Amino acid sequence: MSSFERTVLGRTGLEVGRLGVASTYGVPAAALERAFEEGVNYFYWGTYRRSGFAEGLRRLASQRERFVLVVQSYSRMASLIGPSLERALRRLRFDHADVLLLGLWGRRPPPRVLEACRRLQQRGLVRWLALSTHRRRLVPQLAAETDFDIFHVRYNAVHTGAERDIFPHLPAEKRPGIVAFTATSWRQLLGSRKIPRQERIPTAGDCYRFVLSNSAVSVCMSGPASAAQMEQALEALHRGPMTDGEIAWMRRVGDAIYGKPRGH
Questions:
Q1: Which residue spans within the chain are E strands per DSSP?
Q2: If we measure between CA atoms, which residue out of 221, 253, 244, 19 comes closest to residue 157?
C-alpha cells in the first residue's frame, strides 16, 4: 500500500479519509478546501473555533453530504449541551452535525447527559455520538455498549498506552471508530531536548504516519496552522504506512521522551 486508503469509521458506516483536520490552530479556508479535494473529510469544530476554518466549511456547503462535521461540547450540564450545539451550527450555517463529541470525560457520562444527546438525535441535529477521554480503560467498557460509536483517544509515539489498554479490547464485531489526537505529543516529538542526538527529529508528517500505521486507528487528527503545514500533512497521507524500521525509530524517539523503554 503506497498511501493511506479511505476507511469506514467503525460501526457508524461513515466513509472517511484517514486524516482529520481540527479548527484549533488557524488553517486557512483555501487549505481546508484543498484537503477536501485530496480526500480529507473529517472536520472537527472543536476547542478553538477559528474563522478561517468556518469559512472553509461554508465554501464546502454544496458538498455537505461528502464530509463529516464533528462538533464538540465540554458541558457537564445536560441543559447546556443542546444550546451549545445550536450555537455552533448557527455560526457555521449548517442545520446538523454528523457527530457530537463529548469532550474529555474521565467517567461514564450520567444518564441525564446521554438523554440530552438522544433528544438532539431525535431532532435531527446530530447523527452519531462520540466521547473523548484520557482514561484509557473506560473506552473498552463503553465500546461494548451502544451509547457511543466513536472514541477520540490520545495516541502517539510517546503515549502508546492505547496499544495495551484500548486497541486489543475493542469488540471484533460492531467495532467503534477510533480517532487519535495529539499525534505530535503537544509538539514534544518535533524537537524535545530529550531526543538523542543520533536520532533524526520527526516531522509532523512522521507523527501522523506513525499513528495511522496502526490499523486500530481510523482517523488521525491534524492541527495545521497554515497552508504549508496542510500540504505537509497531505504529503504524509500520500506516503502511506511506515516501514518496520521507521516505526522502530519513532518508538526509540518516543521512549527517550517518555523517559524509559517500554518493551514494545
A1: 7-8, 15-16, 19-22, 42-45, 68-73, 97-102, 126-133, 150-154, 177-181, 219-222
A2: 253
* Digit-coded pLDDT (tens) for 164-207: 999 999 999 999 999 999 999 999 999 999 999 999 999 999 99
Fold annotation for 13-258: TIM Barrel (3.20.20)
Is the whole model's pTM more than 0.90, yes or no? Answer: yes
What residue spans define the domains of the chain? 13-258
Separation CA 11–CA 80 (nearest Å): 28
Burial of 149 (0-12, 13-18, 19+ CB in 10 A): buried
Q: How far apart are CA 7 and CA 127, in angstroms?
A: 19
HSE of 43, CA atoms in CB hemisphere, 13 A: 33
Q: How far, in Å, CA of 221 to CA of 55, rounded?
A: 20
**What's the CA angle centered on 178, arms 185 and 214, to 5 degrees?**
65
How far is residue 104's CA from residue 107's CA, in Å, rounded to a whole number?
Answer: 9
